[in-house]
Write a structure and sequence with these properties.
globular, three-stranded mixed β-sheet, transmembrane (chains A, B), 464 residues, homodimer, monoatomic cation transmembrane transporter activity (chains A, B), transport (chains A, B), 19 helices, ion transport (chains A, B), transmembrane helix (chains A, B)
Chain lengths: 464, 464
């Protein structure tokens, strides 16, 4: 009946408010739990700001950390963190509805609407199936990742610690959380290990595509298997969202890796003198991890200045909508670039892949990008104001990383004072809910205009 | 007859191309002239890149400098630089047409169209008068500035050198050029001098408003003098452009000064220990100079990190259209902010001061801001790539300053290698012609829609 009361209260809120309050609630409760003595390793104490920071970085799947995860937390604490990452990754709403399903309750229309708005689905009927599929897909991908990692970690750490590390890393990578149990240097020790590199890059890219693209690809893949579709036509029949996301992801991953390779190959602090294979893997890893994963194989404070600038931009852009990645999102940037190109060519309509992009998407994209820049600017000023003598590059990297839920740092996080910790917590929170709440407030339907045969078709995409 | 040939050739180009080629031509010719031995001071030689750099920084009214102006150049060289600043400030087109006028030639329809497009004028008939008025206004303001400066500089340097410094500084300040003859530290020695501070701040702000606003204010001022208008109604009857520009200028100048005051008052490298008056003047000066003037009274490399971030943003925003200031312009930012606010409030129309802002202005604003960010990003990566080990803050400050034609530097300009010099020259050039050429390509008329009495009126503004 208490649950009934809460449920009634929730019905008075709109979707965005529920999401915002939900995230804040989980962060607060998670912080309280992590504050308990049994969550810290023997001999380790934790302050309240550090506990909340850890909860926030887990739920927001950011990965910045004021403490060394492997040293600070007891096995129970690590399990709590893993749960918080999974909650953050799958999404509060999907999870809340999963609980309802498992309790065999009927999902209320209100709850369906929330999922529908969060996941931009067209059919109300498919909501339960969608939530189940999300969770199934996540566990499947994480399982595959854990098995692959185990081939490396079990020989190194033994069965128990090896499996724990493999599972934790797989969940953390797929949820784009960037948190690991290896100590202070993330995956630096595996910079030349192809299995760890390829598995991590794979998990990050796949989860970064977003579920809609994943299902779209799976749908077409099944049609190819059933010989209903020729493989050469797969890209052409994909949804516009999938085409945009795959194109942008390809461009960002490869051009990013190319630029990092150019600028780090001769950097004596990072890759100079390394074998070509390591140089290539490390470049790809850096390009992919900036797309809001947050692991690293190169110390971020030793990167050359051009690589830092590229990393800042790639972090800001981030991944694709409907996944676990953060940032302003690939589709947002695609719409902005296409719109600028169309304008400079004197075209009134913005077109791509034979589809016309509605003016309203352009405005959404502008709002998402503009709001993100505003948060970035404000938080950078605030953080540098409370941290006297802080370096511009360090503070810009830290805040960009927090707002796009990336988790990369040039070493500022462990040095944060109490005010700095709360500012970064707030930034991670705003960065995580920002695109989501905007997204739910912003979803717009695109109708094929009746009787217009000369105009190009229009199709739904997700912005922000 | 040679002039005739050139004139015929020019008629085949569109306005943007003429402006782009015109600026490039003046920079190149200016560089060749400054390369001549008689332009350098006795015992001083100048390389070709430094000569072109000086011509570019003068014509683009930027103010970055690889050489110490006061030491490097002979009196003839300084006169050439003064001419280049004046050409850049008044604008090539207005000047070219002035020459035609003084030659008593009839201005061709083609030329009128160019001026009309550059200055966004509604009546073709008024073109000659407009050009004359631009030039008159510039000389009047510069004259007043020079007289005020003379009260300070003549007692200090004697009649001749005092007058030269006063005239040079007045022209440089009104044209937002940021070039001076005082040596390596700009106006630092006058940090506590109210006359120099107030005169410089006044010249920068007035010229930064743009001619349209100036004329609008002058028109209303005359009506008040003639008792046709009550002083309290002046703001209400101003053009929308003027209202936006004045509001944005007020917000930026005062909030910038406030923030700089907060963050520098306790900075031992700059204002800590200074009297309150100096603190206030220096804060206002820093706020105003970032709006693309380029003089400084505080060493930019000693500013605290929050002040650096604020200065970067203020530089990027810059001044207002139709003046000598650079940056993406106040009206561009105003339209973007208003549009985001309207969107988040769920309003379809963007409204301000009882006027509706057309969707097309929003797109122009987005294109101007987006293109500027793209140039900024590309040039920052390029410059940091050719300057190994350069600090992110230094390179970001340098390129932002160049692209917005500001002229402030954290000390990187004199250290630039040859490749770096050419990159900054290109950035200054793109920054100067970018908004102009975009502007001419982008001018759009806003009609009052017939028969719509319920809709708010629409009015022309200038973007970028
Ligand atoms: K992350
Ligand atoms: K300037």
């Amino acid at each position: 009946m208490n649950l009934k009361k809460v449920s009634d209260g929730l019905h008075k809120l709109n979707t965005s408010q529920i999401i915002a309050l939900g995230f804040a609630g989980v962060i607060f409760v998670g912080g309280l739990i992590l504050r308990m003595p049994f969550c810290s390793a023997p001999g380790q104490a934790v302050t309240f700001p550090d506990a909340v920071f850890t909860a926030a970085t887990s739920v927001c799947v950011t990965g910045l950390s004021t403490v060394v995860m492997a040293v600070q937390w007891s096995p129970i604490g690590k399990a709590v963190i893993l749960c918080l990452i999974q909650i953050g990754g799958i999404g509060l709403i999907a999870l809340a509805n999963m609980i309802f399903i498992s309790l065999r309750r009927k999902i209320s229309l209100k709850n369906r609407r929330i999922i529908k708005e969060s996941y931009n689905l067209d059919e109300m009927g498919g909501v339960v199936a969608v939530v189940c599929n999300v969770v199934k897909c996540v566990f499947l991908a994480e399982g595959i990742g854990a098995v692959l990692y185990a081939f490396c970690f079990v020989p190194e750490f033994g069965i128990k610690k090896g499996l724990v590390n493999a599972i934790f890393l797989a969940v953390s990578a797929f949820c784009n959380a960037g948190i690991d149990l290896f100590g202070e240097t993330s995956l630096s020790v595996y910079v030349s290990n192809p299995l760890v590199n390829i598995t991590t890059i794979g998990l990050i890219i796949v989860s970064g595509l977003g579920f809609i693209v994943w299902w779209d690809l799976w749908d077409k893949f099944r049609k190819v298997l059933r010989k209903e579709l020729s493989p050469s036509r797969v890209f052409r029949v994909l949804r516009l969202q999938s085409k945009l996301v795959l194109t942008m992801t390809g461009i960002l991953v490869f051009s990013g890796a190319f630029l990092v390779f150019i600028f780090e190959s001769g950097n004596p602090s990072t890759l100079k003198g390394a074998p070509l294979g390591t140089k290539l893997m490390a470049s790809f890893f850096q390009s992919v991890t900036t797309r809001t994963a947050g692991f690293y194989t190169m110390d971020q404070s030793l990167l050359s200045t051009p690589t830092v600038i590229i990393s800042l931009l790639w972090m800001f852009i981030g991944g694709s909508p409907m996944g676990t990645a953060g940032g302003v999102k690939t589709t947002t940037i695609a719409v902005l670039i296409l719109s600028i190109a169309a304008y400079l060519q004197g075209k009134k309509d913005v077109e791509v892949y034979g589809r016309r992009i509605r003016e309203s998407y352009l405005r959404s994209a502008m709002v998402v990008a503009g709001t993100s820049v505003l948060i970035l600017f404000t938080m950078t000023v605030l953080l540098s104001a409370v941290m006297p003598g802080v370096d511009l590059a360090d503070v810009l990297y830290e805040i960009t990383s927090a707002v796009a839920t990336v988790g990369l740092s040039r070493g500022l996080t462990p040095q944060l004072n109490v005010a700095g910790k709360w500012i970064v917590i707030l930034t991670m929170y705003l960065g995580r809910i920002g695109p989501l709440t905007l997204g739910t407030a912003v979803v717009m339907r695109v109708r094929n205009r009746p009787g217009s045969t000369t105009h190009l078709g229009e199709e739904d995409i997700m912005i922000g």
